[in-house]
Specification:
single chain, six-stranded mixed β-sheet, Aminopeptidase, alpha/beta, 7 helices
């Protein structure tokens, strides 16, 4: 069984390399879930605006993109990652805006799953979040999903670092809050490199106003596109 699983992984990798690259862009929140509230716009509005820009720019570069939502609708966290797993996608990027109780924090940060998120929580969800694998034994398919979830974390960390570098080049070094680990539910169960990026604090009196400006949104979108395109070139 181990030999068969190895051959199937090799076959899946070869197929993925030959197929067009596909990225899933996830605008955080939506519908009844407004997310963080700023003085000029809510998080769900910011994330959709950024996702639309990122999607348009990536498609202009010949990269296939699927958005988890294209309008103001409510989606569960599980529905979002399920979109990426069903394709299956090469990368998953969830876009968010941050907030703090005192409204005095600012800056950008990118999250990858913690070890617990990959090993424990991801396995607990695996039963109904399978990657389509035609003609593959269901038990072997589950093993392959687990292997891919673990292997994808190296590339997720790389994508997160690229994202921070691209944001730092456009938004300044002072706002760099780094790459962090957490068990974000929207990333749980992903069988591809998956990150959650907090582009800034929407409730900060200064940064919040900046995030509402088209010029700032273009900066952020350009940074995400650069990181995604560079990561895809390495796959």
């Amino acid at each position: 069984m181990v030999k068969l699983a190895t051959l199937l992984v090799a076959s899946a990798v070869a197929t993925a390399q030959a197929a067009p690259r596909t990225v899933v862009i996830d605008p955080g929140h939506g519908g009844s879930n407004t997310g963080a509230k700023g003085a000029q716009l809510n998080e769900k509005q910011l994330t959709l605006a950024l996702a639309n820009q990122v999607t348009a720019k990536l498609r202009a570069r010949g990269i296939a993109v699927v958005m988890t939502r294209t309008d103001d609708r409510t989606l569960t966290l599980r529905q979002r990652i399920a979109v990426a797993n069903r394709l299956p996608a090469d990368l998953f990027v969830s876009i968010h805006g941050n907030a703090s109780p005192a409204r005095n924090q600012r800056g950008y940060e990118t999250f990858v799953l913690s070890a617990r998120g990959v090993d424990v929580d991801g396995r607990a969800l695996r039963g109904d979040m399978r990657t389509p694998r035609p003609n593959v034994d269901p038990e072997i398919a589950l093993v392959l999903d687990d292997v891919e979830r673990g292997a994808a974390q190296w590339e997720a960390a790389d994508l997160a670092a690229r994202t921070q570098r691209a944001l730092r080049a456009r938004r300044g070094e002072a706002g760099d809050r780094g790459v962090r680990q957490d068990a974000h539910h929207v990333l749980l169960g992903a069988t591809m490199p998956a990150i959650l990026v907090e582009v800034g604090f929407i409730d900060h009196p200064l940064e919040g106003r900046e995030l509402a400006q088209p010029a700032t949104q273009t900066q952020l979108a350009d940074a995400l596109v650069e990181a995604i395109e560079d990561q895809l070139a390495e796959l």
